[in-house]
Specification:
The protein has helices at 14-30, 80-98, and strands at 3-9, 39-45, 68-75, 105-112. By secondary structure, it is α/β, with parallel strands linked by helices. The protein has a single domain (3-116), classed as Macrophage Migration Inhibitory Factor (2-Layer Sandwich). It has a 4-stranded mixed β-sheet, covered by helices on one side. The longest helix has 19 residues, at 80-98. The two termini are 19 Å apart.
Length: 128
Amino acid sequence: MPLVTMTLNAGRDAKTIEAMLDAVHASLVDAGVPPNDRFQRVIEGGPGTFRYDGQYPDLAKPRDERFVLIEILWSVGRSVKVKRALAAAIASRVAAAAGIDPANVMLVFIETAWENWAFSRGTLLHAA
Protein backbone atom coordinates (compact mmCIF):
# COMPACT_ATOMS: atom_id res chain seq x y z
CA MET A 1 0.00 0.00 0.00
CA PRO A 2 1.75 3.14 -1.11
CA LEU A 3 0.91 6.26 0.85
CA VAL A 4 1.43 9.27 -1.42
CA THR A 5 2.05 12.73 -0.02
CA MET A 6 2.18 15.61 -2.46
CA THR A 7 3.48 18.91 -1.10
CA LEU A 8 3.10 22.09 -3.11
CA ASN A 9 2.60 25.81 -2.75
CA ALA A 10 -1.00 26.85 -2.19
CA GLY A 11 -2.95 28.32 -5.07
CA ARG A 12 -3.47 25.52 -7.53
CA ASP A 13 -7.05 24.76 -8.50
CA ALA A 14 -8.72 21.55 -7.36
CA LYS A 15 -8.99 20.18 -10.91
CA THR A 16 -5.23 20.46 -11.44
CA ILE A 17 -4.46 18.84 -8.09
CA GLU A 18 -6.85 15.99 -8.91
CA ALA A 19 -5.15 15.49 -12.29
CA MET A 20 -1.74 15.39 -10.59
CA LEU A 21 -2.92 12.80 -8.07
CA ASP A 22 -4.48 10.76 -10.89
CA ALA A 23 -1.13 10.89 -12.74
CA VAL A 24 0.74 9.55 -9.71
CA HIS A 25 -1.80 6.78 -9.20
CA ALA A 26 -1.82 5.74 -12.87
CA SER A 27 1.97 5.44 -12.73
CA LEU A 28 1.79 3.32 -9.58
CA VAL A 29 -0.83 1.04 -11.14
CA ASP A 30 1.37 0.62 -14.22
CA ALA A 31 4.16 -0.43 -11.83
CA GLY A 32 1.98 -3.18 -10.31
CA VAL A 33 0.07 -1.47 -7.49
CA PRO A 34 -3.57 -2.65 -7.37
CA PRO A 35 -5.97 -0.07 -8.87
CA ASN A 36 -8.05 0.22 -5.69
CA ASP A 37 -4.96 0.74 -3.49
CA ARG A 38 -5.17 4.52 -3.47
CA PHE A 39 -4.14 6.50 -0.39
CA GLN A 40 -3.09 10.06 -1.15
CA ARG A 41 -2.84 13.34 0.69
CA VAL A 42 -1.95 16.87 -0.34
CA ILE A 43 -0.12 19.41 1.77
CA GLU A 44 -0.39 22.97 0.53
CA GLY A 45 2.14 25.37 1.94
CA GLY A 46 1.48 29.04 2.49
CA PRO A 47 4.11 31.78 2.40
CA GLY A 48 7.23 30.68 4.26
CA THR A 49 5.99 27.14 5.01
CA PHE A 50 7.39 25.24 2.02
CA ARG A 51 11.07 25.87 1.40
CA TYR A 52 13.28 24.24 -1.19
CA ASP A 53 16.47 24.94 -3.08
CA GLY A 54 15.78 26.24 -6.55
CA GLN A 55 18.60 24.39 -8.28
CA TYR A 56 19.76 21.48 -6.10
CA PRO A 57 21.51 19.31 -7.23
CA ASP A 58 22.84 21.55 -10.00
CA LEU A 59 19.73 21.86 -12.20
CA ALA A 60 20.19 23.71 -15.49
CA LYS A 61 16.90 25.55 -15.03
CA PRO A 62 15.78 26.62 -11.55
CA ARG A 63 12.61 25.35 -9.92
CA ASP A 64 9.83 27.89 -9.58
CA GLU A 65 6.80 28.38 -7.35
CA ARG A 66 5.04 25.46 -9.08
CA PHE A 67 7.54 22.97 -7.61
CA VAL A 68 5.99 19.71 -6.37
CA LEU A 69 7.50 17.30 -3.84
CA ILE A 70 6.04 13.79 -3.99
CA GLU A 71 6.81 11.27 -1.24
CA ILE A 72 5.83 7.64 -1.64
CA LEU A 73 5.85 5.59 1.54
CA TRP A 74 5.66 1.92 0.67
CA SER A 75 6.92 -1.52 1.61
CA VAL A 76 10.44 -2.63 0.79
CA GLY A 77 11.17 -4.92 -2.09
CA ARG A 78 11.11 -3.03 -5.37
CA SER A 79 14.22 -2.99 -7.51
CA VAL A 80 16.11 0.11 -8.51
CA LYS A 81 15.00 -0.62 -12.09
CA VAL A 82 11.32 -0.45 -11.06
CA LYS A 83 11.87 2.72 -9.01
CA ARG A 84 13.79 4.39 -11.83
CA ALA A 85 11.01 3.70 -14.34
CA LEU A 86 8.32 4.74 -11.86
CA ALA A 87 10.10 7.99 -10.99
CA ALA A 88 10.39 8.90 -14.67
CA ALA A 89 6.73 8.07 -15.33
CA ILE A 90 5.50 10.07 -12.34
CA ALA A 91 7.63 13.11 -13.18
CA SER A 92 6.46 13.09 -16.78
CA ARG A 93 2.77 12.54 -16.04
CA VAL A 94 2.56 14.98 -13.12
CA ALA A 95 4.36 17.65 -15.15
CA ALA A 96 1.92 17.18 -18.03
CA ALA A 97 -1.10 17.25 -15.69
CA ALA A 98 0.11 20.44 -13.99
CA GLY A 99 1.50 22.15 -17.09
CA ILE A 100 4.98 22.41 -15.55
CA ASP A 101 8.53 21.45 -16.39
CA PRO A 102 9.44 17.94 -15.15
CA ALA A 103 12.41 19.56 -13.38
CA ASN A 104 9.78 21.02 -11.02
CA VAL A 105 8.86 17.53 -9.80
CA MET A 106 10.89 15.87 -7.04
CA LEU A 107 10.20 12.33 -5.92
CA VAL A 108 11.28 10.49 -2.77
CA PHE A 109 10.68 6.81 -2.06
CA ILE A 110 10.48 5.90 1.62
CA GLU A 111 10.55 2.18 2.28
CA THR A 112 9.31 0.43 5.39
CA ALA A 113 9.06 -3.21 6.42
CA TRP A 114 5.77 -5.05 5.84
CA GLU A 115 5.17 -5.49 9.57
CA ASN A 116 4.86 -1.71 10.00
CA TRP A 117 1.47 -1.47 8.30
CA ALA A 118 -1.83 -1.65 10.22
CA PHE A 119 -4.46 -1.09 7.54
CA SER A 120 -7.47 -1.19 9.84
CA ARG A 121 -8.39 -1.68 13.48
CA GLY A 122 -4.72 -1.53 14.51
CA THR A 123 -4.12 -5.01 13.12
CA LEU A 124 -0.63 -5.68 11.82
CA LEU A 125 -1.49 -8.11 9.02
CA HIS A 126 2.07 -8.97 8.09
CA ALA A 127 3.66 -9.18 11.55
CA ALA A 128 4.87 -12.50 12.84
